[in-house]
Design brief:
The structure is a single chain. With 267 residues, the chain is mainly alpha-helical. The chain has one domain (3-260). Helix content is 74%, strand content 0%. The protein is built from ten helices and no strands. The chain has helices at 3-18, 21-48, 55-85, 89-92, 99-129, 140-165, 176-184, 195-201, 205-217, 224-255. The two termini are 31 Å apart.
């Protein structure tokens, strides 16, 4: 694996963003809308609820972390879809580029776009709505790391689905965070879920992050082993999704699927 090839994939995304404000705007716009919307909701809840409980760090903090997770995932899938939409995917793999180098480039692109989105959300939430973002202390770093790794895994998995079923199947990618969110217990404890949903939730790294976030905000002790379990799951899912993408790519090459890659779904 050669880093300069990986960096070239990320550099291509940079040139695309630099030359198109329409591509840059979504990095900031949707996360800003979410923060503003939920910021006013938390203000309203604080006004009508009993004094002594602050909804801002619990709800707005959860929205910020979940949006970061979603931005990381979309950072991978959008970089992949740019190659699909431009019919550039076949050209890339006619070169010596390996799957690992290509996926590494998608991850680098996601790091850049996810970090920019996070900075915008933190600036808006802290200055306008008074979110004590750094109240999580040193746990903030592993919280963000687990969410980042989880987003990367989901992004690679979503890209593999599009590679297998064709560009017309991109609609499968966008709802994935919404499907995962009820199990991730973003806004409520895992204990409120039915038993079968709790079992699924324990297998999702983000649920361990949000459980930890609520514990920290409530001043309760949070076991580090739980967060380690979430991090281990995230790493496992990255390896599994990368293996899945590689298998799908081999299938596409072996069956000639890449040569028939058009704007329509491929069977």
């Amino acid at each position: 694996m050669r880093f300069h090839r990986t960096a070239a994939i990320a550099l291509r995304q940079y040139y695309l963003l630099r030359g198109s404000p329409a591509r840059v705007l979504p990095i900031f716009a949707w996360v800003a809308v979410d923060i503003v919307l939920w910021g006013f909701i938390t203000r309203y809840l604080n006004a009508v609820a009993s004094p002594g409980f602050d909804f801002v760090p619990v709800l707005l903090g959860a929205v910020l972390l979940w949006d970061f997770f979603t931005r990381v995932m979309h950072g991978v899938t959008m970089a992949f879809l740019e190659d699909v939409w431009s019919r550039n995917f076949l050209n890339l793999f006619a070169s010596p580029l390996t799957i690992g180098e290509y996926l590494g480039g998608l991850v680098l692109s996601s790091i850049a776009t996810g970090t920019l989105g996070l900075l915008v959300m933190v600036a808006l939430a802290t200055t306008v709505f008074g979110l004590p973002f750094f109240a999580y202390g040193l746990l903030l770093v592993p919280f963000l790391l687990v969410l980042f790794l989880s987003g990367i895994a989901l992004g690679i998995f979503g890209s593999a689905l599009v590679l297998r079923f064709g560009p017309a199947s991109e609609w499968l990618v966008w709802p994935i965070p919404a499907i995962v969110s009820p199990f991730a217990a973003v806004f409520y404890p895992v204990s409120t879920l039915p038993r079968w949903m709790q079992l699924v939730s324990r297998l999702l790294p983000p649920s361990h992050v949000f459980e930890g976030m609520r514990a920290v905000m409530a001043g309760e002790p949070y076991r580090g082993t739980t967060l380690l379990w979430g991090a281990g799951l995230a790493v496992f899912y990255i390896l599994a999704s990368s293996w899945f993408f590689t298998r799908i790519h081999r299938h596409a090459v072996r069956t000639g699927l890449l040569a028939r890659y058009t704007a329509e779904s491929v069977g």
